[in-house]
Amino acid sequence: MSSLTHTFLLLRQRLVVPALMLQPQSRNYAAKPAAPAATKKKKLGKLGPIMEKKIIPVETDANKLVSYVCGSNYFKTGEDVKLKPDAEYPDWLWTLNTERIVPLDELDPDTKQYWRRLRKMALRRNNQLSKLKKF
C-alpha cells in the first residue's frame, strides 16, 4: 500500500471508531405491527379470495307481483313502479315482436336492421371459417 492510502486508513480509524463508541448500543428496528382485530379471514382460492354469494330475497306475495314491477327500484329507499292499465301505455308497445327472431328473408332490404343482421351473419361465418384453417 502506498503511504497516502495508509495515512487515510489510520485517520479513518481514529475518527470513526471513537464516534461509534459514543453512540448508544441499542438497535432501532421498525416496530412490530399491531395484531389485527379478530376479523374473519376469507378463504383463498386459486385466483384470490373467494367471494361469498349474496342472497337476494324473492317476492312471493301474489298481489304485489300482479300490481308492481318487482325489482325496478334500485335505490335503498322508495318502492317499485306500479303497473298501469293497458290503455295508458302506447300502442306500439303491444306490437313488439317477443315470440321469435324474424328471419333475414322476411326483412326489408332497405332497412338498417336488415344490413346489420347481414353484417353480423357474415362476421360469424368468417369467424367459423377462420377456425377451420390449419395455420
UniProtKB/TrEMBL annotation:
Q: Name the species this protein comes from.
A: Drosophila lebanonensis
Q: Which domain of life is it from?
A: Eukaryota
Q: Which InterPro entries match?
A: Ribosomal_mL54
Q: Which gene encodes it?
A: LOC115634669
Parts of the chain that traverse the membrane: none
**Where does it sit, as one GO cellular component term?**
mitochondrial large ribosomal subunit
Name any one GO molecular function.
structural constituent of ribosome
Q: Where in the cell is it found?
A: Mitochondrion
Provide the family line: Belongs to the mitochondrion-specific ribosomal protein mL54 family.
Q: Which UniProt keywords apply?
A: Mitochondrion, Ribonucleoprotein, Ribosomal protein, Signal, Transit peptide
Q: What is this protein called?
A: Large ribosomal subunit protein mL54
Tell me the leader sequence span. 1-18
Major localization listed first in the record, in broad terms: mitochondrion
